[in-house]
What we know:
Layout (H helix, E strand, L loop, with lengths): L1 E4 L20 H12 L6 E4 L5 E2 L1 H24 L5 H7 L11 H20 L44
Parallel strand pairs: 1-2
Antiparallel strand pairs: 2-3
Amino acid sequence: MVYSGDHxxxxxxxxxxxxxxxxxxxxxxxxxxxxxxxxxxDYEVCPAHEYRFRGMARRTNELESASLARVGEVHxxxxxxxxxxxxxxxxxxxxxxxxxxKGTAFRLALGETAAHIQYLVGRxxxxxxxxxxxxxxxxxxxDVDHVPQRRPPAAPEAPETAAIRC
Length: 166
């Protein structure tokens, strides 16, 4: 059994956000960790939310695809010329819509947007926006083989899974 916490959830994507005391490229680190944990496909996964499930490799692939789809959306928004994380976040698709984001949800959306911008900067695909921390030299990774093309299709819906409470 793998206790995945918020790292791998069966139905929703976790919030991967830039924070003051965290990594300067948290999305890069998250994607690397998904690739490592995918090896544990034969284990039952017990997440912090929702229900137990099997199929770690499938779910980590779905999470990576969803993250990279968001990277494509952020890249498109950056091309329109917004000057801040807020401007870019406002251009993105949010499950409950941008106007509904208040308080914590608003801060999480900004942190997630910043993390995706930092990922693009780390991949050498954008110069970033004012106010974000400089990336450590070790984070600039020139290989861009897994960065999606513009506006990739939405991640597929997760198949129905029997709900077993952890």
